[in-house]
Design brief:
This protein is α/β, with parallel strands linked by helices and 401 residues long. It has 2 domains: 3-57 and 307-398, Aspartate Aminotransferase, domain 1; 71-304, Type I PLP-dependent aspartate aminotransferase-like (Major domain) (Aspartate Aminotransferase, domain 2, 3-Layer(aba) Sandwich). The protein contains 14 helices and 15 strands. Strands 4-10-9-8-7-5-6 form a 7-stranded mixed beta sheet, with helices on both faces. Strands 1-2-3-13 form a 4-stranded mixed beta sheet. Strands 11-12-15-14 form a 4-stranded antiparallel beta sheet, with helices on one face. Helix 3 packs antiparallel against helix 11. The protein is globular, with a radius of gyration of 21 Å. The structure holds pyridoxal-5'-phosphate (PLP). The site of pyridoxal-5'-phosphate has 15 residues, from helix 5.
């Protein structure tokens, strides 16, 4: 057996089978490239589902982490530490908001947003206790906790995990009329991904996000944008909501906020909304720890320059031009996305998403399939144009173009 086979067999024997990874075992990584235990190199066109927007082991982020490792890494929120204020102030400023609630993973941040919205509903909006409703979209992906999968429409994510948390209303994504009908006086929030990542990079119809903004403002309902995957440069802007000139009431951030180094997530909102919490009502041992803050402060500084957003916009235009050519060959039935982010539906005659992903792996390119026919391309924003073109050439070769 090869070293790869030994390690995969051992992992399968000793870990829950809640993933179906491609058969590659990564040992090291740098920028847009990973090297496996056999010394083979792979171009990373997934970037940890956007957790690696700044590439693997980005120099600035590793330096920030290393410097913090030499000072203090964890205090818990029982005490203040000297990176916390800076992190919160800078993240609030980047978002054009006032307050930050730091957590670790995306799912925790979504849970925190749900709790925030409910509390705001009872304390500020005046909804009767226990009656709060949150409107969500079909085909959403907001994480894996019992409450979050309660409002998933994906049978794989939900089945056998009940009983489910009540208080959510599901409407078709992109359907403003359905949303308008679902909102009642008990609705405290609408929770949406401005572009649905896991669903296959689904971009809603033009005007949808602006329409949701108008509706939620009219009805005194919080608009919560889950920008965990779409935010922080991925679509060519800091936030995907910006493409429709929309500012939500609350951003939920994660993934790239931790720079591919540590898990960092946050809810960012106004003082009116996040001001509802009192000591002891919510928390996290690791949320806002010094190491997380140090890395995130550097991430925010990098985003403030705008260079990564500009790069994503520019290379993204190139990517989508090339993918449109591929679509015209009939090998691909649909391409969606914005910036350096694309969902590509493979025509059935040319293989499933999984088969295409495996063939790309054999050619040194790593992507991940989703929902059968789709592959998702989300390279690190630091990828060079040459590497991106090489990756696209491999995709054309796999599809026989
Ligand atoms: C990944 C993701 C989450 C969950 O984040 P975890 O860190 O895996 O818990 C939530 N929402 C969206 C849109 C995501 O892409």
């Amino acid at each position: 057996m090869t070293r790869t086979e030994v390690l995969i067999a051992s992992a399968e024997a000793n870990s829950a089978h809640n993933y179906h990874p491609l058969p590659v075992v990564v040992a090291t990584a740098d920028g847009a490239w990973m090297t496996d235990v056999e010394g083979r190199r792979f171009l990373d066109l997934l970037a940890g589902y956007s957790a690696l927007n700044f590439g693997h082991r980005n120099r600035r982020l590793i330096d920030a982490a290393r410097a913090q490792l030499e000072r203090v890494t964890l205090t818990s929120r029982a005490f203040h530490h000297d990176r916390f204020a800076e992190f919160c102030a800078q993240l609030a400023e980047l978002c054009g908001m006032e307050m930050v609630l730091p957590m670790n993973t995306g799912a925790e941040a979504v849970e925190s947003a749900v709790k925030t919205a409910r509390k705001w509903g009872y304390k500020v909006k005046g909804v009767l206790d226990g009656m709060a409703k949150i409107v969500v979209a079909s085909d959403n992906f907001h994480g894996r906790t019992t409450t979050i999968i309660s409002f998933s429409t994906d049978p794989e994510a939900r089945a056998d995990f009940g009983p489910y948390t009540p208080g959510f209303e599901i409407v078709p994504y992109g359907d403003l009329t359905a949303m308008r009908e679902a909102v009642t006086e008990n609705t405290v929030a609408v929770l949406l991904e401005p572009i649905q990542g896991e669903a296959g990079v689904l971009v809603p119809p033009a005007g949808y996000l602006a329409g949701v903004r108008e509706l939620t403002r009219e009805r005194n309902v919080l608009f919560i944008a889950d920008e965990i995957q779409s935010g922080l440069g991925r679509t060519g802007r800091t936030f995907a909501c910006e493409h429709e000139g929309v500012v939500p009431d609350m951003y939920v951030l994660g993934k790239a906020l931790g720079g591919g180094v540590v898990p960092v997530s946050a809810v960012v909102s106004s003082a009116e909304v996040l001001g509802v919490f009192r000591p002891g009502e919510h928390g996290s041992t690791f949320g806002g720890n010094p190491l997380a803050c140090a890395v995130a402060i550097e991430v925010i500084a990098m985003l403030r320059s705008g260079e990564f957003q500009a790069r994503s916009a520019e290379l993204g235009e190139h990517l989508h031009r090339e993918l449109a050519v591929l679509r015209d060959t009939g090998r691909v039935t649909q391409v969606r996305g914005r910036g350096l982010w694309a969902g590509i539906d493979i025509a059935p005659a040319y293989g499933t998403g999984r088969e295409v992903s495996e063939k790309l792996m054999d050619r040194g390119v790593l992507v991940k399939d989703t929902h059968g026919a789709t592959i998702r391309i989300a390279p690190p924003l630091v990828i060079s144009k040459e590497d991106l073109d090489w990756g696209l050439a491999q995709l054309r070769a796999v599809l026989g173009v």
